[in-house]
């Protein structure tokens, strides 16, 4: 399945998933464009680093596991790090 990127001066951008869809859209004023980030070689891509959100996510996962071990069931999905720490 190919992704065809289109833009329109009034409606913004969209992705067509079939050539027939793109052709029909072009008849209605849409134009194709290329997304530069999709055509960058892997050698030029930046090295990914772990962000604070990812570290927090790992900590949250660990706290949920501890909470489940203590209470015998998983915590509510909306409980955050501070709440889980307080309850442990």
Walk me through the topology.
Blueprint: E1 4-8, E2 12-16, H1 19-27, E3 31-32, H2 52-71, H3 81-87
Antiparallel strand pairs: 1-2, 1-3
* Helical content band: 40-55%
Q: What's the number of structural domains?
A: 2
pLDDT under 50 segments (min length 5)? none
Question: What's the helix-strand series?
Answer: EEHEHH
Largest sheet data? 3 strands, antiparallel
Rounded to the nearest angstrom, the distance between the terminal CA atoms is 48 Å
Explained architecture:
This protein has three helices and three strands. With 88 residues, the chain is of the alpha+beta class. It has a three-stranded antiparallel sheet with strand order 2-1-3, covered by helices on one side.
Note the main attributes of this structure.
single chain; 88 residues; alpha+beta; 2 domains; 3-stranded antiparallel sheet; 3 helices; 3 strands; 41% helix; elongated
